[in-house]
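Teaching note: in complex prediction, the entire set of molecules is handled at once rather than each chain in isolation. The prompt given to students was simply: 'Predict the structure of this complex.' The entities are:
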Amino acid sequence: MISMLQAESVSFAYEKEQPVLRAVNATVPAGMLTGIVGPNGCGKSTLLRLLCGLLRPQSGRVLMDGAELSRLSGGARARRLAFLPQAVNPAFAMTVFEVVCLGRYPHAGPFGGLGPKDFEVARRCLRDTETEHLRARDFLSLSGGERQRVLLASILAQEPDVLLLDEPTSALDIHHEAEVFSLLRQLAAQGYGVGVVTHDLNAAAQFCGRILLLGASHVVVAAGAPEEVFREDALCAAYGAAIRVGRHPFVDAPFVDVLPQERPSS
Ligand SMILES: Nc1ncnc2c1ncn2[C@@H]1O[C@H](COP(=O)(O)OP(=O)(O)OP(=O)(O)O)[C@@H](O)[C@H]1O
Ligand SMILES: [Mg+2]
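The expected output is the structure of the full assembly:
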């Protein structure tokens, strides 16, 4: 099934009078990887929480395949949508394999048990994220990047139609970051809807088919293909910084960098 998750003119404020998102339109269509970028505090994590139904917008709607997300039951939502938050701290000690198997519970039988098929899916997700060698380790003993890859394996094991990931590569080394983006792009090409928040604009330019750029004023500054969004005027407006855009030296994609500002010597 080809899925489409959509926010339609969504506005949200945690505290009255302080909007975090203003009339934001966002789509996470199947078929291409969608990147969500913008400065700290602009509302990216909030948008993902709205898109997965953890928060409800004060105005506007979130639609899954044209129907209001809020009408899906919690179980149906968990089978269709997976969310990887920016920070995850399990409440008690678990092995890596147990963490990945947690992803299978939305598919568990009526008595909550997992079967051989579930364990096979969990093993495949460990392989896909290059974390097989960690399977017996205590999750809390892992490095930051190892934890991120195991958590990615856990939401892949959920086998949802749409994946929403909040900075899933922020702690990864250069090799594993490219591997994860490449895996996400492949999943999107296979028909999953995949939305990823990242601060790595050059990875987004290389791997995403579509970018949503939010600005510090909590509005959408630009949306579309990387070539359309990663323009100096749009990026400078979103970040309030002197951003330059050139061409990537190795692949056919924009290359973004910020010009450091001279600081007066004291
Ligand atoms: N639970 C909350 N209660 C009150 N304010 C919040 C809450 N969560 C986030 N905020 C505020 O809402 C704004 C948007 O936060 P959000 O986490 O969505 O930003 P972000 O774009 O994901 O930033 P970052 O790049 O730093 O992760 C920020 O000003 C933040 O301080
Ligand atoms: Mg965030």
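Point out the following to students. The pocket of adenosine-5'-triphosphate (ligand 1) is lined by residues 14-15, 20, 38, 40-46, 86 (CB under 6 Å). The CA atoms of residues 187 and 194 lie 8 Å apart.
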